[in-house]
């Protein structure tokens, strides 16, 4: 009798467990209305999307939330599986700087489009899967640490990994940024070390390109970057520029960058089909 009662209770617990977990997995999140406008509860829900829930993107599209990857001052980033992530504006209104959160998403996309034509390793945006007015589908970089971590928390990293990351930064990443002279609001915390090496993981729309070998570099005005690191990185960039100049490719790339940016500003370029893998 007691055994029968026990098994009945156990069965009930199992049934309730599967009912609860199935309900959680089947939860559908609606952040936008049928017109693509943020719903009244957008700000309340966007920062706490449950793992396993389905986010309805509209037009028959949806993604499954695998977990929160990061939260910044302007954006939430969620893992959606298959090596991809979704960037969502932090709110439906404006930030403390009186800029709409959606505006930051647009700036990120514009900066990406500008740098996509360079050799600089940058996070991939899957333009055809994105709706820049609401969300961006981007590469999930599987970040190990940032440049800021390498500089200020090196003792917490494995010595071999820190040494390899430093080498890769100076010998591989920095030289590939030779075309860039400035990216607005860039900090060392926005350079990520990932399985494909160092990558620019966050940026804004204000991007300037080098006009000659003596032009400023990506690192010249980078925040949270000590002088000794800045000098080593700039040296690597300028050596790369001298090599490009020697081989006659510096001018050609400069002209290409000017034309490419002009096309972006005119609306002729709104997406790219290829981003350098490294």
Please give a handful of descriptors for the protein shown:
four-stranded antiparallel β-sheet, 2 domains, three-stranded mixed β-sheet, disordered C terminus, Phosphorylase Kinase, domain 1, 278 residues, 37% helix, alpha+beta
In order across it, which strands form the biggest sheet?
A: 4-5-6-7
**What is the 3D form?**
globular
- How many domains make up the 3D coordinates? 2
Instruction: Supply the number of helical segments.
Output: 7
Please summarize the sheet with the most strands: 4 strands, antiparallel
Structural class: alpha+beta
Query: How many strands in all?
Result: 12
- Helical amount: 25-40%
Question: Can you describe this structure in just a few lines?
Answer:
The chain has helices at 2-25, 42-45, 101-115, 147-152, 159-176, 227-246, 250-265; strands spanning 28-30, 54-58, 61-64, 67-71, 75-81, 84-89, 136-139, 145-146, 180-183, 191-194, 197-200, 207-209. With 278 residues, it is α+β, with helices and mostly antiparallel strands. Residues 10-15 and 274-278 have low confidence and may be disordered.
Tell me what the structure shows.
The strands form four sheets. A four-stranded antiparallel β-sheet has the order 4-5-6-7. It has a three-stranded mixed β-sheet with strand order 1-2-3, with no helix packed on it. Strand 4 and strand 5 form a beta hairpin. The chain folds into two domains: 113 residues, Phosphorylase Kinase, domain 1 (2-Layer Sandwich), CATH 3.30.200; 121 residues, no CATH class. 37% of the residues lie in helices and 18% in strands. It has seven helices and twelve strands. It is α+β, with helices and mostly antiparallel strands and 278 residues long. Helix 5 packs across helix 6. It is globular and about 55 Å long.
């Amino acid at each position: 009798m007691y055994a029968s009662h026990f098994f009945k209770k156990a069965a009930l617990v199992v049934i309730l467990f599967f009912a609860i977990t199935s309900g959680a997995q089947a939860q559908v999140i609606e952040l936008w209305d049928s017109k693509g406008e943020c719903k009244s509860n957008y700000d309340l829900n966007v920062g706490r999307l449950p793992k396993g829930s389905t986010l309805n993107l509209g037009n028959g599209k949806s993604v499954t939330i695998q977990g929160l990857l990061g939260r910044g001052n302007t954006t939430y980033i969620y893992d959606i599986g298959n090596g991809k992530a979704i960037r969502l504006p932090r709110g439906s209104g404006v930030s403390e700087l009186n800029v709409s959160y959606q505006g930051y998403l647009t700036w990120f996309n514009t900066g990406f489009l500008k740098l996509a034509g360079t050799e600089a390793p940058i996070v991939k945006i899957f333009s055809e899967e994105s709706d820049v007015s609401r969300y961006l589908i981007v590469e999930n970089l599987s970040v190990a640490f940032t440049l800021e971590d390498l500089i200020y928390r090196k003792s917490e990293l494995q010595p071999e990994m820190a040494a390899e990351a430093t080498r890769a930064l100076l010998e591989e990443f920095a030289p590939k940024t030779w075309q860039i002279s400035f990216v607005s609001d860039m900090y060392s915390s926005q350079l990520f070390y990932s399985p494909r090496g160092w990558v620019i993981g966050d940026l804004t729309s204000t991007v300037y390109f080098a006009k000659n070998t003596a032009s400023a570099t990506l690192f010249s005005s980078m925040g949270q970057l000590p002088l000794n690191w800045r000098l080593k990185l700039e040296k690597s960039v300028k050596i790369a520029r001298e090599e490009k100049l020697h081989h006659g490719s510096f001018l050609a790339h400069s002209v290409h960058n000017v034309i490419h940016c002009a096309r972006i500003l005119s609306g002729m370029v709104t997406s790219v089909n290829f981003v350098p893998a490294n």
